Amino acid sequence: MPLNEDISAAIRPIIEASGNYLEELTITSAGKVKILTVIVDSDSHLNLDQITAVTKEISEVIETLEELGDSAFTLEVTSPGIDRPLTKPRHWRKNFDRLVKITMTSGQDIQGRIGKSTETTVSVGDQTVSFEDIKRAVLEIEFK
Question: CATH top-level class for 89-139?
Fold first, then answer.
């Protein structure tokens, strides 16, 4: 099993026990040091205290993993950024009433507020869009 899958399997139960999701885990090298970046998501917006708590728990588990051996590593735990594409039904539910820009597989662009969503569709403005027809969807930044 690849290293990132071993680490994911070890930390996923901790993250899920805190009511969150392991969105992504990447391992990159910076010289002799490995950088482990863990993106944690939730059904609500995470705050710094929640990220700090899950970081401590992840760190304790990772430090004992034999798969990492004695190699030096830096652990970065973060939540998804505003520019991260919406790819799962829970992303749409979490961002209800936010402004989104969608590029459809047909090339058409749709912009509007996220409405009700199911496991297969979402309403955006006055349209219902099937997730399978979406090429890319990102939140639009709004300034008030």
Answer: mainly beta
Alpha helices by DSSP H, 70-119: 89-94
Is the Cα torsion angle 122, 51, 16, 81 positive or negative in sign? positive
Residue located via tokens 């930044």:
141
pTM for the model:
0.81
Which numeric CATH code is attached to 3-78?
3.30.300.70
Q: How many CB atoms lie within 10 A of CB 39?
A: 17
The four Cα atoms 14, 19, 24, 26 give a dihedral, to 10 degrees, of -30
Q: Please report the pLDDT score of residue 106 as a whole number.
A: 96
Are 3-78 and 89-139 in the same CATH fold? no
Give 33-63 pLDDT, tens digit per residue. 889 999 999 988 888 999 999 999 999 988 8
What is the separation of C-alpha 142 from the centre of its chain, rounded to a whole number of angstroms?
Answer: 21
Q: Are residues 32 and 67 in contact, defined by beta-carbon separation less than 8 angstroms?
A: no
**Does residue 138 contact residue 124 with C-beta atoms inside 8 Å?**
no
